Amino acid sequence: MSAQDSSLTSPFDPAEVVWQPVSPRLVTVRLIPLAIVLGVPLVAGAVAAVLSGIAGLWVVPAVFLLLGVWAAVLVPRQVHAIGYAERDDDLLIRRGVAFRNLVVVPYGRMQFVDVHAGPLDRWAGVAAVQLHTASAASDAAIPGLPPAEAARLRDRLAARGEARLAGL
């Protein structure tokens, strides 16, 4: 393998894996709470700066505005980096832009599969699939799936888990 070929492979991108993306509606689900959290102090800081007449107070809303712009750029990249792939013996879940993460969950290790959606998720038409294993440190969740895909994945993973567990 040449040096150029080895630079194309990564521990986060196994060979011959077709990644399934999550719904782009997850961007909206993640940006709305951020807009609320950043918008309240932005407005409060702007009101305080206007009412007090102190020019230095404009730093407060400017900071929250910059944080909002940064989030508006970062969140879509984070959502685009989330993906999952079903293989014969395990499920791969990847996420992260700066700090990448790849979780490999063997089907035989799954104890149960959970699907959940909060009010904002339901409004946007997305759900999350959570995989529970014997490991307390396991962080195997796939957010931002359309509800039909979440239900399909839940049933498929549960069936594969039972089949692998029965083979032990």
Automatic annotation (TrEMBL):
Transmembrane regions: 31-51, 57-75
Highest taxon of source: Bacteria
Residue span(s) of domain YdbS-like PH: 81-157
Pfam annotation, one family: bPH_2
Keywords linked to the UniProt accession: Membrane, Transmembrane, Transmembrane helix
The keyword Transmembrane helix is assigned to this record: yes
InterPro entries: YdbS-like_PH (IPR005182)
Record carries keyword Endoplasmic reticulum: no
Name of the protein this chain belongs to: PH domain-containing protein
Organism of provenance: Actinotalea lenta
